[in-house]
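User: What would this chain look like folded?
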Amino acid sequence: MMDTQKKKPVKGDFGYMERQRKIEIIKTVVFFGLSLGLLLMGYLTTKTKTNLLTVVAVLGLLPASKSLVSMIMYLRVPKYNETAWQTFEEKKGEVKILYNMYLTSYKKNFPINAFAIRGNNLIGYTEFEECDVEACQTHIQDLAKMNSLTGLTIKIFKEQKRFEERLVQLNELETGTKEADVAQLLCDISL
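Assistant: Here's the prediction, encoded as structure tokens.
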């Protein structure tokens, strides 16, 4: 019997950002709603603000605030082009591709439509003009070195056609031993 349910997208799948954005909004609303509900329940039952439920409601604002920060970060992520994803899926062959990556650093954030990993080669594509590809390449290279992933060649393209051409070339290369580690690193530094 065939499974008719859709698989939930995980980090690196196309559609993950949209799904995660909705989840973060719902979590934030629920957390703040619970705190407000507890505060109101305590006040309505005791007719005073000084009760145990007020303390619990205030403590409930800690996870609610953390969730709010996460929600704001996901709301800042731009929408990714679905037609680019479909084109990459057709051309990827056996190459490992991660989609919808939003890399964060101390100074800048980098929206990347796709990363392709093959051997010691990592290529990326961004459709966003404001993305500083040189800074992104340096950021990834520095983090790769910190994680003992040396010898990695990184190139991020702003032109979709050049990314597609390089993607086809990567398909002809041998697989490497670091691909899973590089993919994990990218997922770790992305929202």
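Residues 16-76 form one domain. If you want, I can go into more detail on any region.
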